[in-house]
Automatic annotation (TrEMBL):
EC code: 3.6.1.15, 3.6.1.6
Positions contributing to Mg(2+) 1 binding: N87, D103, D107
Pfam families to which the protein is assigned, alphabetical: DUF402 (PF04167)
Superkingdom, natural source: Bacteria
Lineage of producing organism: Bacteria, Bacillati, Bacillota, Bacilli, Bacillales
Binding site for Mg(2+) 2: D105, D107, D120, E123
Known function: Has nucleoside phosphatase activity towards nucleoside triphosphates and nucleoside diphosphates.
Gene Ontology molecular function: magnesium ion binding; nucleoside diphosphate phosphatase activity; ribonucleoside triphosphate phosphatase activity
Protein name: Nucleoside triphosphate/diphosphate phosphatase
Amino acid sequence: MAIPLEGETIQIHSYKHNGRIHRVWQETMVLKGTKNIVIGANERTLVTEADGRTWLTREPSICYFHAEHWFNIICMLREDGVYYYCNMSSPFVFDNNAIKYIDYDLDVKVFPDMSYTLLDEDEYEQHKEEMSYPSVIDQILKSNVDKLLSWIHQRRGPFAPDFIEAWTSRYQFQRKLHDND
């Protein structure tokens, strides 16, 4: 598998279990790329929905993808703190200059005080039936929800106190480099 390079601009493609495209983020700058982890950042990037509707993201975000965990984490930097939107998803692959993953509907929204809400359980149950998710996928996702919640409680990964500061600084550095090109 190819590895995205630091400073490179890539897309993010979200699919559904049936293989259909769900959502595309047009531009994300790679801050770190290894075979297991990609950390990126974007701000006011164009997002295209499956039905063709488009919108711009409102705030700067740091995006965390892992090739071994069944979730990804979007850290949205707002005036009143960092909000985290965690998608239960397949591990990512990097292909044709894009991060690609399957979105499995379940989401966890984490607030600046680290309280959280599990979202879209009804959508998950509906799609599980409609798209015939295998029972092994259901088990993997449920255990990864538990893993994600333990990361939140333990302040691991993107929830660690210094994560946002470190990657926001790296993003500002990369933007200056690109502005000077």
